[in-house]
Write a structure and sequence with these properties.
single chain; alpha+beta; Cytochrome Bc1 Complex, Chain D, domain 2; 4 domains; 5-stranded antiparallel beta sheet; two-stranded antiparallel sheet; 7 strands
Length: 362
């Protein structure tokens, strides 16, 4: 029977009605509401609760989320880091056992914290390492070293059987039907533990491919030439017109690692994480002065500005909003306008050279 047909058949059998899987819950501790607010737009508690990490590792996770669009204030990110490092230290996990998880159907409903599935498969790294050995011994010839398929087998990263799987819930029944392996054995000879390990490995390949998991590692950005970066900083980039290596940038490389330096260079208004995982916000407010046709100018922190309306909050905390007309004068003052303009001018080499130069400022 063709493997594509088996893949389709395997999606139906394991989804018989069974008792629903219990949701993992966040401990009731200071910072829980902030975690739900900041993290809940993308995933549920199942992504976080099964992991026990050090404070530095949680800081890296949060920094990765910030680069992907997580929103929050400096205080909120600091609360998230404190909550996670206090309640989920190394060795403390709540991951379900493979046997219990495999007995429940895959659910894809909204999570307790917002949009997205509430049952995302959280990869067990040790299990994925064991699963890699099984994959190399039994599967790699047909499905390739990255599980992306080849002439002899389909792409498993895009397989619905793998994507619908939770801890072996669909991969297990498919293999139990009997599928030839490199050793000549039938896949039905695999044990439940081996299937669980293989499931962990395949989900790890999916997350690494999509780069959407919270535990993906930031690639090495320190690939530029520091001398070229210094020349660009003082020359074509005109960075020295606002910054000084002996002034505001003195010792910056002691404070931030290379990925954070690059993030600050390109998007200085976002929250960054200092070495040690401490959340640090650097954003100066964008201000605006609005002058109506009749009346005094009003200045304050910009809230919103588009083709139709402009709004601000003045120094007293009062909110003001105007409908934009040809007679309304709007003067915007963005302290990061130069950084935004440079995004259209930097080359990839310029960026990496500047980061390499900034890394020397210790």
């Amino acid at each position: 029977m063709r493997i594509q047909h088996l893949l389709l058949l395997s999606l139906v059998a394991p989804l018989a009605a069974q008792a629903p899987k219990a949701r993992l819950q966040f401990p009731d501790a200071p910072g829980r509401d902030t975690v739900q607010k900041v993290c809940g737009a993308c995933h549920g508690a199942e992504v976080i609760v099964p992991r026990g990490l050090s404070r530095q590792q949680w800081g890296d996770v949060i920094a990765s989320m910030v680069t992907r669009g997580a929103k929050g204030t400096e205080e909120e990110f600091a609360q998230v880091l404190d909550y996670l490092s206090t309640n989920f230290p190394p060795g403390k996990t709540g991951q379900p056992t493979p046997t219990a998880a495999a007995s429940t159907p895959a659910r894809r409903g909204p999570s307790m914290m917002g949009a997205g599935a509430d049952d995302k498969h959280v990869v067990d790294p040790a299990g994925a390492d064991r699963g890699r050995g099984i994959y190399i011994a039994e599967c790699i010839t047909c499905h390739g070293n990255k599980a992306r398929g080849g002439e002899n087998g389909p792409d498993l990263v895009r397989s619905l059987t793998v994507l619908h799987d939770r801890y072996g819930s669909t991969i297990g029944p498919f293999l139990l039907h009997g599928h030839p392996m490199q050793s000549g054995r039938q896949s039905s000879s695999l044990t439940a533990d081996q299937i669980s390990d293989l499931a962990n490995f395949l989900h790890q390949r999916v997350y690494d491919t999509l780069r959407s998991g919270p535990y993906s590692q930031v690639i090495n950005v320190l690939t530029g030439n520091a001398d070229a970066g210094r020349a660009y900083f003082n020359g074509a980039g005109q960075c020295n017109s606002c910054h000084s290596p002996t002034g505001d940038l003195a010792g910056i490389a002691k404070k931030y690692d290379p990925p954070a330096l690059q993030q600050r260079l390109l998007f200085p208004q976002t929250v960054n994480f200092a070495r040690g995982g401490r959340a640090v916000a650097h954003a100066q407010p964008v201000t605006v002065t609005v002058t109506p046709l009749s009346g005094a100018p009003v200045s304050g922190t910009l809230i919103a500005l588009d083709d139709f309306n402009v709004s601000l909050r003045d120094s007293s905390g009062d909110y003001h909003c105007w409908k934009r007309t040809p007679e309304l004068k709007v003067q915007k003052n963005d302290p990061y306008a130069a950084h935004e303009r440079m995004l259209d001018e930097y080359t990839d080499k310029n960026i990496h050279d500047i980061v390499a130069y900034l890394e020397t400022l210790k």
